Amino acid sequence: MSREPQVTIALAGNPNAGKTSVFNALTGSRQHVGNYPGVTVDKKEGEAILEGLRVRVVDLPGTYSLTAYSLEELVARNYLIGQRPDVVVDVVDAANLERNLYLTVQLMELGVPLVVCLNMIDVAQARGMQIDARRLEELLGVPVVPTVGRRGQGVDELLRRAVAVAQAAPRWRPLVISYGSDVDQGIAELTAILEGGVPRQGLISARWLALKLLEGDSEVMGQIREDSELGRRVLPVVRRIGEHIRRTLDDDPESVIADYRYGFISSLSRQVVTHQREVRLDFSDRVDRVLTHRLFGPLFLLAVLYGAYQFVFWGAEEPVAWLEAGFAWLGGRVSEWLPPGPLRSLLVSGVIDGVGGVLGFVPLIMFMFFVIAVMEDSGYMARVAYLMDRVLRVFGLHGNSVIALIVGGGISGGCAVPGVMATRTLKDPKARLATILVVPFMNCGAKLPVYSVLIAAFFASRQAMVLFLLTLLSWALALMAARLLRSTLLGGEQAPFVMELPPYRAPTFKGLAIHTWERTWQYAKKAGTLILGVSIVMWALMTYPGLDPQARAAWQARIAAATSPAQRQELEGRMAQEELAHTWAGRMGRALSRLTAPLGFDWRTNVALVGGFAAKEVIVSTLGTAYSLGAKAEEETSLARRLAATPSWGPLKAAALMIFVMVYAPCVATVVTIRRETGSWRWPLFSLAYNTTLAYLLALVVYQGGRALGLG
Ligand code: GDP
Ligand code: MG
Hints:
By secondary structure, the chain is of the alpha/beta class. Helix content is 65%, strand content 7%.
């Protein structure tokens, strides 16, 4: 009988949650008191017996949290990390559910195998609280057993389920909560560094360490500091991220993190607790009564989005026009200074039209990012996700898919790369894959210039409306594609999950300015680097080899022999077209044109679309180059005006092109990210083929359908 017990259970919980009562009910008289090594905190140990199996039960000190603030908390945490009990039973006071769940969430973030003991269920009932333990179990993904510890009620069941978990010997599976974009980015950055350089302490995840560092946990800080090499790399990053969060959110990382944890709990308790009596609601709860209401919530959301588009166009219209005029002026001046020749062509048609075409949209992107920043910083974005969750489930996605889709451009102006990365908070692998595959349908900031030019050229009177419709269309397509994937390749059950509903906060002007600027700067930086490079390559492809000298001489002779200025101009235009058609890009575009003719795309559009695979902004810059190469330098007009004046273009073609651009192959950066996030080339390749095929079919339906209806 002196063999060691085979299973160890640790009891954790807030002070007065009933831990000792549960402990006594489990162990009876088989218990003794000892000490944790080196500290004066009592360690109570005992033994329970289940069907002949001896189970060691350890009563941890009562704690509200797992930070390093108090000795009790540190002792409890170090015991969990160092001794690794087979299972942790978290004794929760059901009558104070939300406050007690704060520890539960931290235990889940640590990743220990867990069973929740929903104690004091009698007190909760007496207070008019109805707690759906089954639902709580589903949402948390760990066993939940209601008990009345004082009377030993439910304790047998608790022991049975705890032993079952222990014997299944589960791996530590840390819960991942989203802490809003600032903190999440910080965690990602730190995790990447830590994954490279820490001797992993047993089962602790790098993400957990990163989180603790941002929370300013003195113990973890100290450990990192001891490793001076790692400390030198990690601590300045921790400081910088902390500084950034303080500046943008006007609050400590610690409190922001706590807010999101409570947000997670608040959304959890909404789904499991019914109050039979009126309870006092705080400000966020009262606002949420309206904003997450089944009927008013979606109406308010639509109004917000529509208002946002009106605001963006109202604010950006003038600055975009100034910038466009500025770049056109610059192109004109450079044309005057330089003699005709390859250098002038490179600078004017390649660099200025290409990069200028993208930079010209900076104000638009900036206003978009501002709107997103207001939604994120105020906490409304989390409500949008919460609201859309009900809808998304129907399509086999999860609530957190919404954040990924929004970051990916669900409200025009995101980027698919962080969108794909934001799916990391999705636990269900199939729902996550489905989300990854539909994020590229969203209208990212790079597609926006394409829409903008086409809208300005062909739908000028209804700018906000058309963009709004494109947004709705991209969502509809993404959802349908997700539904299709989930009922074919990615079929399977949906796991329940919980969304964070952090309290509302008033955004600060400084925070909004920094968030807007950071994202705008990333966009502008891309224009100055990647887009510049691709523009030059595209210009070269669109310039060389060109007409052979004889053909060129023949054209020049015909132009010289022109009898009227009008005829001369017409011949010049035709020659420029010929010239372009004989370039590498021209050949490629023409090779594709039999395929794209049913969509109404000419070879110049094809060239732009091929370039758009590098980055979607390139579509605009390439069209800019293609159409400026044919035009005379002194014509200082924007691309939109040039397209509007080109007879082969019209609203129907523009509509087909916008839909094609929305759906076709994700850009290189996104493809690479999908490869990284899914761990194989299978899904990025699938995405390329699937999206391009779908884009082709949609554009075909729009263009041919429109023509059949006599629209163009
Ligand atoms: P600990 O601080 O977590 O160890 O909590 P204790 O086990 O000492 O319990 C605190 C108080 O709550 C004691 O007075 C217990 O008798 C009482 N208690 C424990 N469990 C229950 C329960 O399920 N229902 C009720 N009504 N009281 C309980
Ligand atoms: Mg106690």
